[in-house]
Amino acid sequence: MEWWPYVTNRLTCRTDQNQRPRIAVVGDIMVDVDLHCSCERIAQEGPWGVFGIERTQRRLGGAGNVALMLQAFEVQVEVYGAVGRDGCGEVVAAGFRHRVVMVHGRTTSKTRLWVQGRMTGPRLDDDLRQPISQGDAEMLVRLIAESAPDAIIVADHGKGVVTRDLMRQLGRSRIPVYVDPIKTTPGGDFVPAAMAGGPHELPGWCRANCVITKRGADGLHWRDGEREGTLLSTCRNLVDPLGAGDQFIAGLAYQRCLGRDWPQAIEWANAAAGLQCEQAGCHPVSVAEVEQRVETKLAMSEELR
To answer: Pairing with 195, which of 107, 154, 156, 224 sits 20 to 30 Å away (CA)?
Structure first.
């Protein structure tokens, strides 16, 4: 077993370092590639366009994207996952502390085409689908426990990091776990703090202290046992939904670490996700932007009363 070396390059924050939440993100680390193109002509070979690549943007995706969004909230972030033996320079350049398993193959990448500023198809995926071993899972969780974060976010994209062994080990850490699942996310014989996903993403075993069902443009529904509620989407002008789920789970865990109750934390995270949908590509939103959106919504509610 080999480990990618540490990189520590935390951002300077306005608040005292001891007051900032510390959150660990564990899951599938990816590299998102955006090809920004112009359509020059129709191909001679068939009825499709010939795209000229004007610029290429590479950024962290998956669990790495969640970490970048937390970093924008001035959270102390650590990332745990797996990358292929391809150098993975994007992870090193990300600017937060991370420990990852090196496995054979390439790091998962997703390539999207942007033509004249608008995302179009198809999307090209190069997946790393190699489950980590039980020993790797135990090592990741042991390192997380030694770091003693305030919360853990599990970002599962089905590429091999989130195994049943990992989930079982996380349950023994006694640290609040926030799960961004897919349908096949395994259970871990424990009750997570929260699980947030669309109807097609929540696994059959779905259980948590708080379950949030995301409904896209129709908002979300949440329940925490005794209480439940619904929220409308706060997105004012849908541009690109990419990254909204990552933004939501990051905002939710961040607010809970600050001591907010479930309704407050969910409303804040919903506002963050709405802002994310109003811009092209994944660009983490700031605390100030989210606070302004929440305050505007409260002011409008007061005017309607």
So the answer is: 107
- 146-171 confidence digits (pLDDT tens): 999 999 999 999 999 999 999 999 98
10 is a domain residue = no
Per the CB < 8 A criterion, the answer to whether 198 and 215 are in contact is yes
- CATH number of the domain that residue 94 is part of: 3.40.1190.20
- Measured CA distances, 51 to 113, 118, 121, 204 (Å): 9, 13, 12, 42
CB contact at 8 A, 29 and 91: yes
Residue 5 to residues 20, 88, 97, 261, 277, Cα–Cα distance (Å): 24, 12, 9, 37, 34
Pairing of strands 118-126, 109-115: antiparallel
> Tens of pLDDT along 92-138?
667 777 788 877 777 888 999 989 888 888 899 988 777 889 999 99
Question: Distances in Å between the alpha carbon of 192 and those of 150, 153, 174, 270?
Answer: 14, 10, 10, 20
Selection from 198, 201, 242, 200 nearest residue 219 by Cα? 198
In a domain, 4, yes or no: no
- Structural domain includes residue 300: no
Question: What is the count of structural domains for the chain?
Answer: 1
**pTM for the full model?**
0.87
- Tell me what pLDDT residue 305 has: 52
Strands 76-84 and 22-27, sheet pairing: parallel
In a domain, 305, yes or no: no
Residue 59 and residue 187: Cα distance in Å, rounded?
30
